[in-house]
């Protein structure tokens, strides 16, 4: 069951004028969180803004004794709520509800795990990479952004033994172009006998391309969708997404309950975009 916590901000690491990582003391939620799950947060404890905003759990924080101490959120400033999250200081308080949603599958070491992230779509992948490391599963991150100012935490993924493919649209870091370019190349070069699960989070168009490429190469894909959510508990129906039934017909489900992680070949992409 999700918990509603009055959490204290532990730190705010401003990575750039647009990106930051907020760490909060919510150990009860963090201890239950699984890779790909999310929390609904509201900065401050007053009534404004009325609705909370969903954020993937970025990190599970631990103290020096290894005990779970809280969690962190990767934030990009795109509006009023994310701007407020950017300005938080240690000691500030925020409402945090979670963990919520369906997590990623953590594949065994006989498989390979390929994560495809676009910009702030990196958010659910650090916890996934850590979980995959405990299983000794070979893991690759394809990470793209508009420029080098959109790519973060590379050292942490390298410490976890993750193989990196980096792309930027302006060519300022890694390979110039879109993140799907090295993904396509690796899919074509990897033997069909090697099981690979492809995970994706980022812009909807990117995830559609990733899911299509995975299906074309006979690979399983899981995508973390990011529709607008009003409550996170299934009550407001603001986050419905079109998916295919077992007979192939489309129907709507609530992302906060049936997702945010979906099988890539179950999403009806032309109705979502």
Top keywords for this entry?
22% helix, 7-stranded mixed sheet, 36% strand, 2 domains, 8 helices, alpha/beta, 7-stranded antiparallel sheet, single chain, Rossmann fold, 273 residues, Elongation Factor Tu (Ef-tu), domain 3
Protein described:
- By secondary structure, this protein is an alpha/beta fold.
- It has two domains: 3-100, Elongation Factor Tu (Ef-tu), domain 3, CATH 2.40.30; 112-226, Rossmann fold (3-Layer(aba) Sandwich), CATH 3.40.50.80.
- Helix content is 22%, strand content 36%.
- It is built from eight helices and 16 strands.
- It has a seven-stranded antiparallel β-sheet. A seven-stranded mixed β-sheet has the order 11-10-9-8-12-13-16, sandwiched between helices. A two-stranded antiparallel sheet has the order 14-15.
- The longest helix has 13 residues, at 204-216.
- The radius of gyration is 18 Å and the shape is globular.
- The relative contact order is 0.14.
């Amino acid at each position: 069951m999700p918990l509603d916590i009055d959490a204290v901000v532990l730190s705010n690491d401003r990575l750039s004028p647009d990106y930051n990582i907020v760490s909060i003391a919510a150990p009860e939620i963090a201890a239950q969180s699984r890779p790909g799950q999310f929390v609904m947060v509201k900065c401050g404890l007053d009534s404004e803004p009325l609705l909370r905003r969903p954020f993937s759990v970025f990190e599970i924080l631990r103290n020096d004794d290894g005990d779970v101490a809280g969690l962190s959120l990767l934030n990009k400033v795109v509006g009023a709520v994310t701007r407020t999250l950017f300005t938080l200081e240690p000691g500030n308080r925020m409402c945090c509800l979670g963990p919520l949603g369906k997590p990623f599958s953590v594949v065994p070491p006989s498989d390979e795990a390929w994560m495809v992230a676009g910009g702030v779509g990196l958010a659910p992948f650090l916890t996934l990479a850590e979980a995959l490391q405990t299983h000794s599963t070979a893991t690759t991150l394809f990470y793209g952004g508009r420029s080098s100012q959109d790519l973060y935490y590379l050292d942490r993924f390298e410490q976890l033994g993750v193989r990196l493919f980096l792309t930027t649209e302006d060519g300022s870091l890694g390979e110039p172009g879109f993140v799907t370019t090295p993904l396509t190349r690796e899919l074509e070069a990897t033997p069909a006998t090697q099981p690979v699960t492809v995970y994706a989070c980022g812009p909807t168009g990117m995830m559609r391309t990733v899911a299509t490429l995975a299906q074309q190469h006979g690979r399983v894909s899981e995508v973390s969708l990011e529709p607008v959510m009003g409550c996170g508990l299934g009550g407001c129906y603001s986050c419905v997404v079109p998916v295919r039934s077992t007979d192939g017909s489309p129907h709507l489900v609530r992302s906060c309950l049936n997702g945010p992680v979906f099988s890539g070949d179950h999403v009806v992409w032309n109705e979502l975009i």
